[in-house]
Design goal:
The protein is mainly α. The protein is built from eleven helices and no strands. The chain starts with a helix and ends with a helix.
């Protein structure tokens, strides 16, 4: 497997090369011949080579899907001293999400010929590729409230606030509200509300509040 993993890196074109690398990397993890966290880091470094927004989004979405059941999550067969733990899985997903959101935001500047409405439609169609990272984080078996509060939520909110993009901020805030447990939101409500005050003025904060309060009221 190590020879195969090395040989696919010599494929001529970068896009096929990286899809092949992810596919072989997935099989490599299944053989347990190399530490999972090292392969994950290697793949994250490699996919940085594609900076064209649409190609980059689909490549990273494929990476996330292929590694979905191979992360060193709590209780997983891939968890261990060498392979890593849930913190390594979280680090992988957050790094992937940060880069995918950057590519997604860049998409609106891809072509000056396209009008704004067409770009918005295109971005709306691709938003689930970015949101999938949040869904995957929320489904990790090893995710506890303490980890969520100290590692996951602050990093997600940082990704949301620094992008300064209305569509991204609106969608990702709604993803956070829908994906994570209600009791987590109750405990971290102040953090969520403080973040809403720093969002782009064009973000529909009212709808975010309504969604959050409806979810919490049902829980209560």
């Amino acid at each position: 497997m190590s020879d195969l993993y090395e040989s696919v890196q010599h494929a001529g074109n970068i896009i096929p090369r990286l899809y092949l690398l992810i596919t072989v990397g997935s099989a490599y993890i299944k053989t347990k011949e190399a530490p999972v966290k090292l392969i994950l880091r290697d793949l994250l470094d490699m996919v940085k080579g594609v900076q064209q927004p649409i190609r980059g989004l689909f490549l990273r979405y494929y990476l996330l899907k292929m590694m979905k059941d191979k992360l060193p999550d709590a209780g997983s067969e891939y968890e261990g001293p060498e392979n890593g733990d849930v913190n390594d899985a979280i680090e992988f997903i957050l790094a992937n999400m940060s880069e995918m959101n950057r590519l997604w935001v860049r998409l609106q500047h891809l072509s000056s010929q396209k009008d704004k409405d067409m770009r918005d439609v295109e971005r709306n169609e691709l938003r689930v590729t970015v949101g999938e990272n949040i869904i995957r984080l929320s489904s990790l078996e090893g995710l506890t409230y303490d980890i969520y509060k100290t590692s996951v939520l602050p990093k997600i909110l940082e990704i949301i606030t620094i992008c300064k993009d209305t569509l991204a901020q609106q969608y990702l805030m709604e993803c956070v509200i829908q994906a994570f447990p209600d009791e987590y939101h109750l405990e971290s409500l102040e953090q969520l509300l403080i973040t809403t005050a720093t969002l782009n003025p064009n973000v529909d904060i009212k709808s975010i509040f309504i969604n959050l309060m409806e979810k919490l009221s049902k829980f209560a």
